[in-house]
Amino acid sequence: MAEQPRLTVSGTNIGAPDARELAGFYRRLLGWTVTESEPDWVQLRPPGGGPSLSFQTEEGYVRPVWPAGPGDQQMMMHLEIQVDDLDAATAHALAAGATLAGHQPQDDVRVCLDPAGHPFCLWV
């Protein structure tokens, strides 16, 4: 059997109705830097380096529903963001433009929705 080639995940690309708007939200939320910007694509990187988050405008974007019911647009991914203080991080996320999801399945996790409707979890 051939040796597996080296594979490195360098980033995640997130579809949005407006790449610039969603990148701006995550820039405020995470404090990351815009490293590349085109009209329909923006990339953010953390200050210490590491995998990027990129945002791409999708003309046919359909906002996910969380939790999804039968026939609803399912989420295709969500970010897990570890925090030191759940209440402070939640307040920061809301001030940055997130909304708190109506359904909260765990006491030590807060599910928020970004402006494009993508759920993300803040957890201790």
TrEMBL record:
What protein am I looking at? Catechol 2,3-dioxygenase-like lactoylglutathione lyase family enzyme
- Which parts of the chain span the membrane according to its record? none
Gene3D superfamilies, per database record: 2,3-Dihydroxybiphenyl 1,2-Dioxygenase, domain 1
InterPro entries, sorted: Glyas_Bleomycin-R_OHBP_Dase, Glyoxalase_6, VOC_core
Source species of the chain: Sphaerisporangium krabiense
Q: Does the keyword Flavoprotein apply?
A: no
Q: Where is the VOC domain?
A: 8-124
Q: Please name the Pfam families in this protein's record.
A: Glyoxalase_6 (PF18029)
One MF annotation (Gene Ontology) recorded for this entry: lyase activity
- Keyword entries, A-Z: Dioxygenase, Lyase, Oxidoreductase
Q: What lineage does the source organism belong to? A: Bacteria, Bacillati, Actinomycetota, Actinomycetes, Streptosporangiales
